[in-house]
Amino acid sequence: MNCFVIMPFAQDFDDVYATIKASVTKALGPEECRCFRLDEERPAGRITTRLLQELRSASLCVADIKESRPNVMWEVGYAMALEHPMIILSQTLDDLPFDIRDMQTVQYDRSRLNTTLGQPLQKIVVDSMSFRCQAQAAPVQQNDLVGQLLSEMADLKNMVAQAVRSWNPGSAPVPQPGGESLQNLEGAWVSASGTHLYGSIIESDLVVPYCYHRDDELTGAYFGWRVTGDYWFARFAWRDHGPAGFAFLRQDSVDVLRGAWWSDKRNLGFPKAPPEKEGVPATWRRARGVEFPPWATRFLKDVQKKGVSKALEGQ
Predict the structure, then answer these.
(1) Is the CB of residue 179 less than 8 Å from the CB of residue 198?
(2) Structural contact between residues 7 and 105, judged by C-beta atoms closer than 8 angstroms
(3) pLDDT of residue 249
(4) 27: exposed, middle or buried (C-beta count within 10 Å: 0-12, 13-18, 19+)?
(5) What is the DSSP string of 292-309?
(6) pLDDT of residue 173
(7) What is the pLDDT of residue 267?
(8) Quick check: 38 and 62 in contact, CB under 8 A?
(9) E strands present in the chain
(10) Consecutive sets of 10 residues in the chain, 315 residues long: mean pLDDT of each?
(11) Cα separation of 118 and 106, whole Å?
């Protein structure tokens, strides 16, 4: 995923750029995101040609329009014409030209970059990419709309049931996720970073093969799901002894899982709660009406025959 940063190249902006890059990388994950300015790399060839190529390949653009420099405004206009998600930054709203006053904007203070720029930008990036992935994964067909309405009705019924229980102290407690509710996690999902995931229950465990940032081959799998408090806990591992770790995900609704993941190659037990150190944010949204691709189906069949570990090793 490419995040193209549009801003002046002057040294006066280096601290702003460092904050932007750290915030975007934290939001999308260091292994899933390339956040850069055009001046970071200087290959041979025409600068204008490379600028156009990078703008066309961008998944997201962040633009600091301080001083409204002509080259910055031209790049903003070109990215908007390509309909890329655009986040505007400015130290004062007075800098905003009329044509972009309705754009998502972060107003920041140079003396408090982390709180006024870093933290707000991180949240907007996560929300923007989640919305984009959801829009791409949800075809607007009648059957899908009916499925969405049914899902929303189920959410509403669940909310009403919880309210009724809270009004009647003698009634049974609200059930926690687990048991049969693991079946609610089966199916296709798309993460905020554009990763495609496909869940299926195999021998009482949910196995979720995924393809990072695409949908054409196996990257790794989630497995070992269990309930801890309000969260689902699951481990993940990449194939061929790649990265490994675990995630804590809360089911916000039938179609949304939200939480974070942490690296843990040593596989140190079963944490009872999310670690105090901040993890990489993760949001999964259900992709209704999506069939499992051949690579995911093959992997799930291998898991049935050999188990998750050997299937990931390709044995």
Answers:
(1) no
(2) no
(3) 93
(4) buried
(5) PPHHHHHHHHHHHHH-HH
(6) 35
(7) 64
(8) no
(9) 2-6, 34-36, 60-64, 86-90, 105-107, 187-191, 196-202, 205-211, 220-228, 231-238, 244-253, 256-263, 280-286
(10) 87 89 85 81 81 90 84 90 90 78 86 92 83 54 50 48 40 38 88 90 93 88 90 89 86 86 74 80 90 95 92 80
(11) 10
Q: How many other C-beta atoms lie within 10 A of the C-beta of residue 264?
A: 17
Bridge partners for 35 per DSSP: 3
In angstroms, what is the C-alpha Rg of the chain?
22
Write phi, then psi, for 288 (nearest 5 degrees).
-75, 145
- Per-residue pLDDT tens for 8-28? 887 888 899 999 999 998 888
Q: Which of 275, 276, 279, 282 is nearest to 259 (CA)?
A: 282
CB 230 within 8 A of CB 217: no
Rounded Cα–Cα distance for residues 129 and 194 (Å): 8
Three-state secondary structure call for residue 252: strand
Rounded CA-CA distance 97/246 in Å is 45
pLDDT at 196: 94
CA torsion through residues 103, 67, 93, 111, sign: positive
| Residue 259, strand partner residues | 249, 282
From CA 205, how far away is CA 199, in angstroms rounded?
Answer: 10
Return d(Cα 186, Cα 206) in angstroms, integer. Answer: 7
What's the rounded Cα separation, in Å, for the pair 74 and 200? 48
pLDDT of residue 199: 95
What is the token pair recorded at 142? 């009648």
